[in-house]
Amino acid sequence: MSASPGKPEQRDEIPAEPHTAIRGMSLWPPPRSTRHSGKRRKGVLIAIAAVLVVLAGGAAAAWVLNPGDEPGPVGDGVPAAFAGSRVGEMAQVDEQGKPVTDWTAAVDLKEGAHRGSAEWRTFNCRGSLTLTEKDGARLSFDYVETYDPDNRCVDEATLTLAAGSGDAVEAEWLAESHDGTMMTSTGALD
């Protein structure tokens, strides 16, 4: 191509594209994708929950399968003289010694165990016993209610057993009633 007088020389130029790529450039990095981070977090939480369930289940199963053989705070557990299933009549009095009611008690203890069970048959209540004190021929247990469909029994009590005549054991049950009255029951369990 030749230049004409007064006109600048034209070249075959490629039309310039708009500089959109430069206009879209930023000094800050693009945001990170969060599309997968929720899945990772959820997976970690599920794994932790599974481990906790396995540990709790194992501990509960060990206690259920062998509740009385773990070492307890009181020596060697229940002596042979107190072991077995025992049933007897209890007479209950209030703080002034006035008779309240008579009721049937059943206690189940295994030799060497630190735990047992009790049932107050007249009231349709059951609970667990935990050996708390052993003094010669006298044992003390904490009673914690586990079954009371009629809401007639106390949630916690103390049961003390002492050597009686023959194979029987003397029982003393102490508890605070729902209205705050201290109640005492005594009797013999055969």
Could you characterize what this model shows?
- The protein is α+β, with helices and mostly antiparallel strands and 190 residues long.
- The protein has two domains: 37-66; 84-189, Porin.
- Helix content is 17%, strand content 38%.
- It contains two helices and eight strands.
- It has helices at residues 20-23, 37-65; strands at 84-93, 99-109, 115-120, 125-135, 138-147, 156-163, 169-176, 182-189.
- An eight-stranded antiparallel barrel has the order 1-2-3-4-5-6-7-8.
- Strand 1 and strand 2 (99-109) form a beta hairpin.
- The radius of gyration is 40 Å and the shape is elongated.
- The termini are far apart.
- Mean pLDDT is 79; it is low at 61-72.
- Residues 1-38 are annotated as: Disordered.
- Keywords: Membrane, Transmembrane, Transmembrane helix.
- The chain crosses the membrane at residues 44-65.
What is this structure's SSE topology?
Blueprint lengths: L19 H4 L13 H29 L18 E10 L5 E11 L5 E6 L4 E11 L2 E10 L8 E8 L5 E8 L5 E8 L1
Antiparallel strand pairs: 1-2, 1-8, 2-3, 3-4, 4-5, 5-6, 6-7, 7-8
Describe, in short, the structure shown:
By secondary structure, the chain is of the alpha+beta class.
Q: Could you give the order of strands across the largest sheet?
A: 1-2-3-4-5-6-7-8
Report the total helices: 2
- Backbone CA Rg: 40 Å
CATH third-tier fold name of the largest domain: Porin
Mean pLDDT, as a whole number? 79
Distance, first to last CA: 129 Å
Percentage of residues in helical conformation: 10-25%
Count of β-strands: 8
